[in-house]
Hints:
Helix 8 runs antiparallel to helix 9 and helix 9 (284-308) packs antiparallel against helix 10. The chain is of the alpha/beta class. Strands 1, 2, 3, 4, 5, 6, 7, 8, 9 and 10 form a 10-stranded mixed sheet that branches. It has helices at residues 24-27, 59-67, 88-98, 114-124, 144-154, 190-195, 225-233, 261-278, 284-308, 311-335, 341-347, and strands at residues 46-52, 75-81, 103-107, 129-134, 138-139, 158-168, 174-179, 187-188, 205-207, 237-249.
Amino acid sequence: MVIHSPGSAPDPSPVKVRCLAPKEFETKSPQQVTQPAYSVDQSVKISVLVITYNQERYIRQALEGALAQKTEFTYEIVVGEDCSTDRTRKICEEFADQYPGRICLLPSERNLGMHRNFRRTYASCQGKYIAMLEGDDFWTSPDKLQLQATLLDAHPDIAVSFHEVNRLDEQGRRRSGIWPNFSVPERTGLAEILQADYVPSCSMMVRRSAVPEIPEWFEELAMGDWPLLVLASLKGDLHFTLQPLATYRLHANGVWSSMDSLRVKRERLRLYLVLESHLPPACGTLIRSRRDEYIDAILNEASAYASSHSYRLGRALLFPYRIARQLLQWTNRRAEPQRDAPRLARSNGRSV
């Protein structure tokens, strides 16, 4: 495996083996970052992408599960460590020292935030396929990478492979069993993934050619895996394996579990607004439908809050979303064909 360090100066850290992302991710604003064209190292089949921050309780188990994979090919583990304030970096350094030919550690001199850390780590991966693993989750099957790579090799029309996962609470107890806990077809596509995110992040393996790089607008969002799946689905199908090969951890510090229901709806609405700006126009109808559903859901929840708590606070919550709905309805009418033109023409005594 090639240890790569594009555009970076030597790191004075005592850790012997490092794989450094471009320094511009740390020194520039999101608008100034220009990612280099990605390159695939033909000797590396899969890059395991690990992002971590303040996860000293969990990161060891995540890395051990990645190292335990039994494969017929070479794979790298690229760890984006985001300047943790606990022992997370120290643990990652220990693993990088112990496995210099397998683990590439991306230390950060300052906290970049989840999405910029994800973007720079993704940019540093050299594999044909990228397997996602956050530092608080872990893989339970040593055959996971081999199974997914074999599938993607055999089906070039598949952009993403994913599978079932177990869910675990902070006390190490299984919670709510398997996820997804509802029926998911073996193959899905853009229409389905725009409706809902049913893909566990720690189960994803993405074909790199489907998403060569992560766009900067990811940094506007609270989630990263869902828009990544949407982008990948523009290039191919999503394939679901009905077998739990990993464990997703639920805890109070998780991105979603720390949000209340209104905040979750707001962040999902933000996702649809951003996607509408950046996806091809052909996706517009699907996106606008879901966008409007979330506006209505936010209005309903804020109305319920107003009736049960503070009327003034409830009206304050409602106001921006009422304005947004009116503006979006006006925009939708402008975008639609002028269906009323014949009727208006007839009313004026003209033919069309």
